[in-house]
Amino acid sequence: MMRVILEVKEQVKPNLPIEAECITPKNFLDPEREFHVWKGNKEQDLTDVFHVRKDGDAKTAEQVEITIRGDSSHIKRVGEYMDGGKILIENDIGMHCGNFMSAGQIEIKGNADSWLGREMHGGTITCHGNAMDYAGSGYRGEKQGMRGGLIEIMGNAGDFAGETMAGGEIIIHGNAGDMPGVEIKDGRLTIMGDCSRPCGNMSGGECRIFGTAYDMLPTFRNEGPTTIDSVPVTRFSGDYTSRGMGTIYVKNCKYMD
Amino acid sequence: MKTLLIKNAYVIDPIQKISGETMDIAVRNGLIVDDVKNPDEVIDAQGMLTLPGGIDSHTHICGTKVNFGRYMSPEDMRAGRTSRRGDMHATSGYSVPTTYGNSYRYSKMGYTTLLEGAMAPMEARHTHEEFRYTPMQDCLANTLFDGNWFALQAIQDGDTKRLAGVLAWYLSAVKGFGVKLTNPGGTEAWGFGEDVHCINEPIPHFGITPREIIVKMIEANEMLNLPHSVHLHCNNLGKPGNYMCTLDTYDAIPDLNDKRQSLYSTHVQFHSYGGSSWKDFCSKAEDIARSVNDKPHIVIDTGQVMFGKTTTMTADGPMEFNLYRLYHNKWSNHDVEMETGSGIIPVQYRKKNLVNAIMWSIGLELGLLVDDPWRCILATDNPNGAPFVKYPEVMALLMSKEYRDKEFATLHKSTGKRVILPSLDRELTWNEIAVMTRSAQARALGLVDYGKGYLSEGAEADIAIYPIDVATTDPARDYERIINGFSSTEYTIKRGEVVCRRGTCTLEGNHATYWVKPHVSPEYDMSTDTAFIDGFNKYYSIRMANYPVGEEYIGRNVCMETEASI
Questions:
Q1: Together in a domain, A153 and A75
Q2: Within this chain, do residues A152 and A62 fall inside the same structural domain, yes or no?
Q3: Are the Cβ atoms of B76 and A143 closer than 8 angstroms?
Q4: Which of A81, A110, A139 is the last residue of a domain?
Q5: pTM score, two decimals?
Q6: What is the DSSP secondary structure assignment for residue B144, as one 8-state letter?
């Protein structure tokens, strides 16, 4: 078992973004590997940004646990292409956390910035705080977003959660913002709180909304009442601007005035 | 007075009928000369294949629709990023790269002249602005006339001379080079929600047929004595069974010019489809090639498809709309008032898709079945068939049966029943590849008179030196070496200066835009024709005085003046 503790050093310019895609469990298996991060337009060594402590040995990525301490809210791309092991983030984390990850676990004690778990294929991400926009979605122009795995957000999510999602599951325990599940193709998006304008141009998959969906789109057809886990909900099929192959279960819904 | 001497070059120059001679090439002031004393720079090209600079006679690299392709595909922009290095700017994009990306990558492959395949006249400014930032190549722009109302009006009235006058005014106003017809009549019909399905079907409003448009345009083109012939994208692109339409079109073409072809038919692969639907879709390359072999006044380019992601862009609006209904992905269509239209769709060609595998085979079949390489040009209709960086692979496929068979084995298993490619044993020679990638283009575009496409005294010193030793390379076996060798030159020389050395571009700014200016008699000068001026100011959203592209937009340029017979 290897434990890596990365403690963010005090930054002279704390608002400068730091691109740290090298922080994945697999990369720490190689003792010779050099770790570089980009801070603004300068390339720096990992030790310029973090106090690094490494204990123990590991043969596979699964045996590596990385802990990130301190103010990590401007550290981007942590866990990109991660394929096993665990990353624990004790505070907030910057954008693009868990990009393209295929296995392993990321736990965020604070809030996550936008693009959490963008285009991920597998593994789990748990965020105990709020997540910003585009959780589990595809990046600009991409046809498919998240394709597998699980993102669980204990707080609220921003706009466009699960945009172009094509598999896997997203659970948002708080509210979601505007347009969750836009262009969703497959997978399941669960929102325990409220949201607005869900699932525009949906072409497959499932969305469950246990709060109120404001400004429901008129291109979904009301298929009548049903229940999920004994909660009474209304089933909608749509989006009929596309082929209408998706399903929304919603507890309360309101159309735009 | 910069001088340069290239020693011991192994030269293939088909225009001068040099096929593999070791010789020295002397350059002074950007031109090839007989000899130089005490040259400023000496390049030893011992054991390296030396060809005239490559010419792409149909590519989409600059202009509004290319730019629309860029901004509707951010994922494509992420696919091909390179960082700033030395004199080179940062670039991005794979199938629709930034202008510098296009220029550097073409230069790396030894290309020194590019023809933008379709420029909407009204949006010419944008094209010319992007030409200025394509610094390693001379650029030319084919100008779209397929739905031009004044041109269609003249055809409707049966007045070919007036049609020639209209063409002349537009070409010199927008600094264009050739006459391009994209789905003649079809794009205009699409403005009325329709399309044309063969060349004998009249288009709405004007009541004329695509056949009349094509033939009259060719006649008008020859009246103006333009360097290039009419550049035609036939009707019915990409539809199963469209080969009949293509054959009908070829049969209708008159032979009006004894110096060069009367018709340049572009991306013919997309027009050589048999069958009645996608289910019985098959190759008709044999029929098309036979027709081309019989008609010395027609030159084609293959429009090869290669597998992978790319972006289709054309002025053929209805075709792109049909593609959208197949793919249901993002889509853009655009109407250019009074003139033409366009459409853009990202696509992916897959080996395991039967239709795509047949398309790939048809392109190669055309390259192998047309006997005369001077009349069958290698192109992918970049980026419609594939991005131009795939050219070296296309060359290797044409030169090696072994490579073709190896690739063919990876395709959809039913492909063999629909194409004849596996039965073709022809392997193109170095000479034929040199013809198909530069000399034929220079001749078809009429650029030989302007010093392009050959390496004798007086020619422009556009030279590509490839790290390929012809003596020890058997193209049929060493196809990997062909691909690597043609992918990256040892030196690319543009107007006597080394602009690219092993992929590192070093210098810029020595390029020019070529455009034509036909001189017509005052009777057919549209700038003083009251009917034309009235029509223009009535129907265009801009004033006629603001329409022409000023010289300040085009920087260094070469004006090709011609004397029209009207």
A1: no
A2: no
A3: no
A4: A110
A5: 0.91
A6: E
